Amino acid sequence: MSLKIKSEGRQVSDFAYAPFTYADLNTTDFIPVVELPADAVLLKVNLGVIEAFDAAATIAVGVSGTAAKFIAATAADAPAITEAAKTTLNNHEIQGVVDDIGLTSSAVMTQGKGVLVVEYIKAFRVGHSQG
Q1: How far apart are CA 76 and CA 28, in angstroms?
Q2: CB–CB of 126/10 below 8 Å?
Q3: pTM value?
Q4: With contact defined as beta carbons under 8 Å apart, do 87 and 45 qualify?
């Protein structure tokens, strides 16, 4: 048996690019941002701080009910990009349920701008063949 996939279906990844500002972080509650389909296989989660938020503030990225599952307590008071560790992405397994990926901030923000980027594929969807 060979594991080489030459002419079978290939997936093209989908990206959710969600810019946000301090006005969107007007609570410390979980704020849903990106809804992933149940058949999603999560590949990457990035949080980018474009303009600094409040001093000593943090932002976490997680799923409904697990506020810091992907990126926890990222400093939000300086421009930077933080990528979730591969071990927090369900080992690239199918999600199984519809999940909202969202943000939780340590304080109500009064300044700043950022972006949440989520990359995933939909399991069993064929984008193209090759070979």
Answers
A1: 14
A2: yes
A3: 0.86
A4: no
